[in-house]
Amino acid sequence: MITAKTLKLSLKSLREFAKKRLTDEELIALDERDECPLEIVRHMCSPDKLGIQLLFIPEEFGGFGGGAFDVYCVCEEMARIDLGVATAVLATFLGSDPITVGATPEQKKLWLSRIADEGLLFAYGATEPDAGSDLGALQTTADRVMEGDRIVGYRINGSKQWISNGGIADAYTVLANTPAGPSWFVVERGAAGFTQGKPENKHGIRLSNTAPLSFADVQVDLSRLIGGVEGQGLLQAQAVFGYTRLMVAAFGLGAGWAALDRAIPYSTKRIQAGAPLSEKQGYTHKLIVPNVVRLEAGRAYIEETAERIDAGEGSLNTEGAIAKYMSTEAGNAAAEASIQALGGYGYTHEYMVEKISRDVRITCIYEGTSEIMEMTIARDRWQVHLKTRGQHYHDRAREMEALAAQHPNAGAREAAIAMHALADVMEQARVGRLTRFQHILLRLGEWIAYAECAGVLARRVVRLAEGKLNEKANRRFDLATFSAISRIFAREAALKVSTEGHRWIEGCGVEAPAPDLAAVHRAQAGLMADMDLVADALYGRSTKAARAA
Ligand SMILES: Cc1cc2nc3c(=O)[nH]c(=O)nc-3n(C[C@H](O)[C@H](O)[C@H](O)COP(=O)(O)OP(=O)(O)OC[C@H]3O[C@@H](n4cnc5c(N)ncnc54)[C@H](O)[C@@H]3O)c2cc1C
């Protein structure tokens, strides 16, 4: 268990370390040299130095036993510093996940204690040249090595691709096909027949080592089969998706904010047409505020999901997918807008937003692409829609209406409109049998993510208002601003679900009753004042709107 105070101190020492050792100049130079700063990564993972990995290791194995909420906070902070270094440090966590969820007690003790005590770096080896999103297409094999009729080990053959820490890790968790199906193995660096290829020349996260792995008759003994039972690999990988996707969601969030936190101060100093850019509404309301709003919607979903995981609600894979999808897409858009916000300077290396934009792009790809997230979300919630005979989102909308009755400014009323519209679109898709179109299924995934985020954001505003927000929760915004953020996002969600949903239902040739667009449009009332309020909060200005709220 990590207390709020310990977490705060850990984040502070992380920031201080980065300030000294990972300055902008250093990061730019490493990025240009395409170099992973191994010594810094080791420093961050050493138990007698920063010891970041200790936060994630259970107490019984020498760590601090951090939960999902702690992991989110550390991942966001790391991503604010550098997403490549964050990937290198957190790859150990990802790499050891199959052990955490699936290993025998002896295996856990061995490997998790070694990560805690020795700062062992891990890599997670799942992807292959022909098995990316579809891990079922896995071709790496692990053949049994027999002594009489007893299995004594395995012989691994095949290759892995795009493995973070691939060239620098001390140990690797490797997914391979046994006779009884995919299984995880631990393979140590230096094993005979195991080679690491040269690092990829990548678009971004150039401070992270990404390399292919090759296995030619690599022999491991039985104790290296995670869990000791064949065929559990895909289940073990699934069991941590909620958790690991939350980590990447936090990466998107941290990197997106890192870019905006450069664009915002820049715009206060850059004078054009006689005034700072920060005073130009056409600038702030296009490039800054909408990105802040979407990032905070993603954060709300991350925080609620992390709390639920920590409360023991299970691995919450669909929620992890929504958190990842929304936060990484928002982070990517925020970094892209930050380049625009800095104009020509944004397009150069020196001002960092260009690097952040290249770096954050990976978050929409690794740990499951955005399209795979859309599919995951839609498939799960489609089943819920069917089971509840189309009532699921109408019920959620009614909960929002009840919340709005108590807290009229929290964005719950607008979220309810989005949810009713979503329920209607899903029902029209069912009647028209439209999920046979993959595009409709994936678009449903997007609309579901927007509507759910709107609901979660409103719930967190209410918790802030009632003084019930988790003490580790982010408190960058006061209640008035947070409420405005929630309303802006929920209005966007309502408009998106209603108009895009109807467009695609009709687009499939199904005549459907038009959504109540008048209500959706009426809900946009106050949008400009809310955008002004958020802009003023970001720039530390006080306004009429803020005072009135
Ligand atoms: C820098 C970097 C680091 C990485 N680190 C690791 C690591 O440490 N360990 C590891 O195991 N892997 C790692 N990966 C691999 C990463 O997880 C995969 O790249 C990712 O899952 C996508 O797989 P793919 O590249 O084969 O793309 P593909 O699966 O071929 O996808 C290509 C495109 O098609 C879309 N697509 C795929 N399937 C479908 C479908 N059924 N329907 C519709 N659209 C679809 C995708 O969304 C994507 O847009 C890393 C990748 C990179 C680039």
Question: Can you offer a commentary on this structure?
Answer:
- Helices cover 58% and strands 11% of the residues.
- With 549 residues, the protein is an alpha+beta fold.
- The protein has a four-stranded antiparallel sheet, covered by helices on one side.
- It is globular.
- It starts with a helix and ends with a helix.
- Flavin-adenine dinucleotide (FAD) binds at residues 91, 124-127, 132-133, 162-164, 202, 205, 210, 362, 365-366, 368-369, 371-372.
Concise structural overview:
This protein has 20 helices and nine strands.
Task: Please estimate the helix content.
Answer: 55-70%
Radius of gyration using CA atoms only: 24 Å
The assembly state of the depicted protein chains is: single chain
Order of helices and strands: HHHHHHEEEEEEEHHEEHHHHHHHHHHHH
> Which structural class matches the secondary elements?
alpha+beta
**Quick one: biggest sheet?**
4 strands, antiparallel
- DSSP strand count: 9
Low-confidence stretches: none
End-to-end distance:
38 Å
How much of the residues is beta strand, in percent?
5-15%
Spatial order of the strands in the main sheet?
2-3-7-6
How confident is the prediction overall: mean pLDDT? 96
Query: Outline, from the CA principal axes?
Result: globular
Task: Count up the helices.
Answer: 20
Name its key features.
549 residues; binds flavin-adenine dinucleotide; 4-stranded antiparallel sheet; alpha+beta; globular
List the helices and strands and how they pair.
Layout: H1 4-21, H2 24-33, H3 38-45, H4 68-81, H5 83-102, H6 105-118, E1 122-125, E2 141-147, E3 150-164, E4 171-178, E5 181-188, E6 194-196, E7 210-221, H7 233-239, H8 241-269, E8 271-272, E9 275-276, H9 281-310, H10 317-341, H11 343-346, H12 353-360, H13 370-387, H14 392-406, H15 412-431, H16 438-465, H17 479-507, H18 517-522, H19 527-538, H20 544-548
Parallel strand pairs: 1-4
Antiparallel strand pairs: 2-3, 3-7, 4-5, 6-7, 8-9
Helix pairs in contact: 1-4, 4-5, 4-8, 5-6, 5-7, 8-9, 8-10, 8-12, 9-10, 9-16, 9-17, 9-19, 10-12, 10-13, 10-16, 13-16, 14-15, 14-16, 15-16, 15-17, 16-17, 17-19
The chain binds flavin-adenine dinucleotide (FAD).
